[in-house]
Amino acid sequence: MMLLMPSQIELYEQMSTISTVMVEAARAKDWERLVDLEQQVAALRDKLMADDGGNLSDGERIAKATLIQRILDDDAEIRRHTEPWMEHVRKFLGDGARQRQVEKAYGANQL
Question: What is the total count of domains within the chain?
Fold first, then answer.
């Protein structure tokens, strides 16, 4: 029996479903789950990139556009929750790097 590849619309539907779960993970600050889900979306995106798209009907084009907009809306919501955390991480890592630069420049034990 031959396995059929999912259609482009089915792939977008799967991505949309996962992006909705990603929003929930971001709201819950479940970063590990968010990363895992993002990897699933990336795999689906890779499948889409490998698909030439074929000839979509008008209805399929509308469905595709609707799904893409939903995914983009979810992405904006995810960023709303992750950007403050990412800024905190950048600041934390940046402060540590500055501290190491100061210690290197002035010597950690010269006080």
Answer: 1
How many angstroms separate the CA atoms of 94 and 111, rounded?
A: 23
pTM of the full structure:
0.74
- Summarize pLDDT for 28-78 with one digit per residue, the tens: 999 999 999 999 999 999 999 887 667 888 999 999 999 999 999 999 999
**Could you report how far apart the first and last alpha carbons of the chain are, in Å?**
76
Secondary structure element (H or E) that encloses residue 47, with its range: helix 31-50
Residue labelled with tokens 């699933």: 40
Q: What is the pLDDT of residues 45-54, one digit of tens each?
A: 999 988 766 7
* Domain enclosing residue 41, as ranges: 8-80
Examine residue 108 and state whether it is found in any structural domain, yes or no.
Answer: no
Nearest to 6 by CA among 93, 34, 17, 20: 17
Distance between CA atoms of residues 53 and 7, nearest Å: 9
DSSP assigned state of 51: S
- Rounded distance, CA 111 to CA 49, Å? 58
